[in-house]
Amino acid sequence: MEGYSKELYDEVKSLKNRGIKVITKFNTIYKVDTFIVDNTVVDDIGLNKDEYRLSWKYNNSDSTRFLEGNSVFSAKINGEELNITPGNTFITRDEMSLDFVVGVVENKKTGFDEIFVTPKNPNITIGSLEGAILDGKKKLGINLSISGGYGVVYTNGKIGFGPFIGMSISKPILKF
After folding, report:
1. Strands 38-43 and 51-59: what pairing?
2. Can you count the helices (H) and strands (E) in the chain?
3. Looking at the whole model, is its pTM more than 0.70?
């Protein structure tokens, strides 16, 4: 487990005995430009007749973020002057829906398994990705196969060269 960050190492260590084969840890960054929220002024909100509420909702264009809330303020007319006193903004609903495809695939160049995360939304960037494949089974790298060719053969008590067909056990040197 050397080479993992300390944080991932600790997580792998604590989860390894639970039979988990793959652990992924990724940081998601969701960037949104400034947006405009439509609101409605609601008077008579039950506090007193000088207090008002701006009720607002926001749903972004790709439907991944939904916000809803109320901003409370008071407004009084003193003669010909309007005095507005800001109040508080209450976010009553904050939802974010993020869809990812997460998987493990063999890298054809290196032969190692790699963990990948693909967000379905183009506004989402994976800031960092760390992973560990915990399958403790080591591949022996030994093949059992049917083979044929020309080489060293043992026939009638003699060793010599000749054609052969049979079973072979081999250790691959190159993969194609």
Report:
1. antiparallel
2. 1, 10
3. no
pLDDT digits (tens, 9 = 90+) for 19-33: 556 666 767 776 666
Average model confidence (pLDDT) across the chain: 77
Instruction: Write the CA distances from 173 to 33, 101, 109, 131, integer angstroms.
Output: 54, 35, 15, 28
Whether 54 contacts 41, CB under 8 Å: yes
The answer to whether 130 and 25 are in contact (CB under 8 A) is yes
Measured in degrees and rounded to the nearest 5, phi and psi for residue 10 equal: -65, -40
Domain chopping of the chain, boundaries: 1-136, 139-176
Distance CA 125, CA 32 (A): 12
Confirm if 13 and 134 have CB atoms less than 8 A apart: no
Q: Among 5-14, 93-102, 109-118, 161-170, which stretch is predicted with the lowest mean pLDDT?
A: 5-14
